[in-house]
Amino acid sequence: MKDYIFSNISKIIERDSKTTTYKFALLRGVIDIIQDNSPFITFSNERAYFSFGLLIEKWLVYYYPILESNTTIPQINGENNLAFENQFKRLIFFYKDLGGLSAFYNDLKNKGIPKYIEKDFIALSNKLKNTISMMPMKYIGTSINREYYSIFRLESPTSKKYTSSIDIQFLIENYGNFSIPIDYYEAFKVLGSFICGQDSILFKWASFSVGASKQNISIEKVINEVLKSPITERDVALSKKLYKNILQKEGKVFCVWTGKAITNYDIDHVIPFSIWKNNDLWNLLPSMSSMNNQKRDKIPSAGLIESRKDMIIHYWGLINECQPHRFKKEIQITLLGTNSFSDWEDTSIKKLQNISDYFISSRGFEEWNS
After folding, report:
1. Helix axes 182-196, 4-15, angle to 10 degrees
2. CB of 265 within 8 A of CB of 242?
3. Prediction pTM value
4. I need a labelling partner for 342 at 20 to 30 A (CA). Which of 15, 171, 253, 314 fits?
């Protein structure tokens, strides 16, 4: 297994399209099938082959409780429904008073889907396959090599074998196969349970707490509490006041990324808040709204930071003049470390570049060059 595969997986998770949850469901489904040690996984020509029907089964299980929930749990940006939502809700409505997800899954695995709902179930399964193959399978990996189907590949469909019962066997025998490179299979086999399974640190932590409570609390409750952060919101109030004073005093503020004089501006988190919950004053610099919107959750490259070094240091100097105690403490803890504050400008810039390189190269976040 090649080392770059781990980096690629990180890039896929962070960079590839986040318009819907389809990407996450596809990766989770493949990992779950691997973790199940399914006998329907085969190997040939450096690729691992999977039953598409098993992936459809996983999506049925993942999305059923989400779409059944009385609480709206958004799965797609905007006001559009999921591609398969209408078909899915017909299935959910049928099982509403029959036992819900558990009753449906028992039918799928054992008894077979009732005749009354067979056509709707097949329509849903067809829609799921079309959605999976034409969306996440097609686009996953484009952030790495700009090619469609660069990791997931659709294989020749199997001939239709309509069984007497519409069940999991029907899905396996009638929906063909897909494949991924063997290196990705090996990586998912090793990392899968840590990425989304029961071996993840958070799940283990929560399971221990539930056991220690003698089942008096739920895993969901523990995870919700464990994930709480002391920094939950962007805090730019002080920075806004600082740059407002600069505007009143000097008549202009300059965009940190373009150098253009601006009177209307956003306070930009140099390292995006969504990635690094950091409201340090040094990380909050004025930017044109258009630049801030273009940057969004991208990481400024080391080269861009180098080219904008003078402007960044200029603003850091102004912050140091206005808020010397807070600025010195924050920049010492997050950028300087054990280095002396006497040479803080160059040292801090180099550390900021190192942080950017880390998020881009190791964590897979998208690079931004303005």
Report:
1. 60
2. no
3. 0.76
4. 253
